[in-house]
Structure formats: C-alpha cells, structure tokens
Design brief:
single chain, 326 residues, alpha+beta, two-stranded antiparallel ribbon, transmembrane, transmembrane helix, N_methyl_site
Length: 326
C-alpha cells in the first residue's frame, strides 16, 4: 500500500524537461500568433484611417453645400496685415488650413469658435487651440501625433513649454507638378498673393485644395470619382529627408503650405528637404502605400508602386486625362 501511494505521488507532477517542452511550445504558438494579431490590429487602424478620410470628405461636401465652393487648402481670414499681437510678421500671417474651415462640419463648432480670425495659426490664442485635435484629423497608425517643428511649440511666460501643437495627417491636394500642368504663380517683380514659382515652393493650379483657391464641383471636369481631394501624410519613414508633419491648423504663410501639398513625387518617396516643402509625398505607416480621399468623398488605397502618369492625372481636376489610380 505504501509503495502504491509513493508511486502515485511521483506520477502527479511534471518533470523539468516536460515543463521546458510545454513552455517552448507556448512560445512557438505566441510567435506564430503575434504577427497575425498585429496584422489584424493594423487592418483595423487602416480601416479607421479610411473612415477618418470619409468624415473629412463629408465635411468638405457639407462646406460646399453652404458656400458653393471648397475651402482653400490654406487661406487668410480677413487681412494680409498681421495684428500687433501676432507673432508672425510675414506675409500671410493670418493663414489657416482647410481643416480649420471644416471644424463645424466634423462636430467641432466650439473649437472653431476659439480661433482668432485676425491672428494667424502662429498667434498664441490659436496655438492654444491646436494643443488639441479632432480624432478624425489623425491616422491611428501614425507614431507622430504632434508636430516636430520647433516653431510649433507653445511657450508660456516666454520659456516654459506647455504643449507641442498637434499635427494633421491629411493634407489637401493642390494638384500635380509636371510637364503640361499649370502652376499658380506670379512674376518675381509682381505684387499680390500668388507665389513666386522661382522660389522653389511652387503651387499647382490644377488641384482642389490649393493656396487661396476657391474650387467648386463645377470645376472638377475630370470627374469627382477620378480626382484626389486629400492625401495622407503621416510618416517619417522616407528614404530621404524628414516627413515633419506640421500643425493641423497651418495654412500657406508665404505659400509654404502646411496642410496642402502638390503631387510631384510618388507615394512614400519625398520627405521634407529645402525647396520641396510643398512637394512632400503622400505617405503613411500602412504597408505598401497610402490612402487618399477622392472628390466624391470615397477613400481608396494607392500603392507606392503607382504608375506616375496615372497618379498625376488623378491629382488633376481638369486635365482631360482618361487615366486614374485604381
């Protein structure tokens, strides 16, 4: 009897080898399942990002219903002359982005009311607004929720940092840059609000959300389902340069547009380098490409291997091209 009890006790536990084998099996299963879990999470984030673009698209359509035009990608509210309390003394200091204009249509009317119409995006009152951000203005896959630009840090009492302005991840399409496409320019000797296209910060004249543009659906003769209205810009993973997403309220002061970009380079190619600030590529943390919003308020994914002729054609609202990205 005693021998039988002892034998039962010996058989009741695991040996060290058996325990190590079980742990190893569990580790292998976790290693196999983890990528699938991460892929599922990224798929959910990508879907959420597409839904953000659709919300922005509906807001732009509602804005158009009220004003019979789309807002500019970057615009000035009242005057070209900065107020005495505006920190930015350059031309276009009262510039704001299209994302400010559509705030009431993404259910952020209270935030819209906080913006000072005369001061620009760099003024202290408006900077304080941009240390918050509507959720639909940022891609959940991005690791860059705030601007990394030094001028977009809010200081209190002259030196204490109380917040970095939030970035916007969805920039307006100013249009294509390339042979046969038009630029919105002025001659260097001329005065006025158009940019000098010899300065390196050219602005396309064939998009939808340009610098001080007023484009209506009537002007999108290539078709709303064939024309890009907004593109994603939310990564630092460029082969060259730095993505540096800017504050979501930044318009086009001196025509260096923060929340509006040209289409000159392919997806995930051109980061921020001197002379190409307006030409930063649409980009994302989604594998293989980035999402865009078409003028009909539908969202689609564009491969980083996109045919450039089709891509430029889709960025143009009135080029008469028959090609578009699928």
């Amino acid at each position: 009897m005693t021998s039988h009890i002892a034998e039962s006790k010996r058989r009741g536990g695991f040996t060290l080898v058996e325990l190590l084998v079980v742990i190893a099996i569990i580790g292998v299963l976790i290693a196999l399942l983890l990528p699938a879990v991460q892929q599922a999470r990224e798929a959910a984030r990508r879907m959420s990002c597409g839904n953000n673009l659709k919300q922005i698209g509906l807001a732009l359509h509602n804005y158009h219903d009220v004003y019979n035009t789309m807002p500019p990608g970057g615009f000035r509210y009242i005057s070209d002359t900065p107020s005495s309390t505006n920190e930015n003394t350059a031309f276009g200091a009262t510039s704001h982005s299209y994302l400010v204009a559509i705030l009431p249509y993404v259910e952020f009317s209270a935030m819209a009311d906080q913006f000072n119409d005369i001061q620009g995006w760099r003024g202290q009152p408006n900077r304080r607004v941009v240390i918050a951000v509507p959720q639909s203005y940022q891609c959940p896959s991005s690791t860059l929720p705030r601007s990394d630009h030094a001028d977009e840090t809010l200081l209190d009492s002259g030196s204490t940092v109380i917040g970095q302005m939030y970035a916007g991840h969805y920039v307006g399409n100013m249009g294509p840059i390339g042979s046969g496409y038009k630029l919105f320019c002025k001659k260097p000797a001329d005065s006025g609000s158009a940019p000098n296209c010899n300065s390196g910060n050219e602005v396309s004249d064939q998009g939808i959300l340009g610098a001080n543009s007023k484009i209506g659906f009537r002007d999108i003769t290539d078709g709303t389902s064939n024309t890009i209205m907004v593109g994603e810009l939310s990564t630092n993973n460029y082969p060259t340069g730095e993505a540096a997403p800017r504050a979501w309220s930044r318009g086009c002061p001196d025509h260096s547009c923060g929340m509006a970009k040209n289409v000159k380079f392919g997806i995930n190619i051109q980061g921020f380098v001197s002379g190409n600030f307006n030409n930063m590529s649409f980009s994302s943390m989604h594998s293989g490409g980035a999402q865009v919003l078409m003028a009909d308020a539908s969202a689609r994914f564009v491969s980083e291997n996109v045919d450039m002729d089709a891509y430029l054609a889709t960025a143009s609202r009135n080029g008469g091209e028959v090609r578009t990205v699928e």
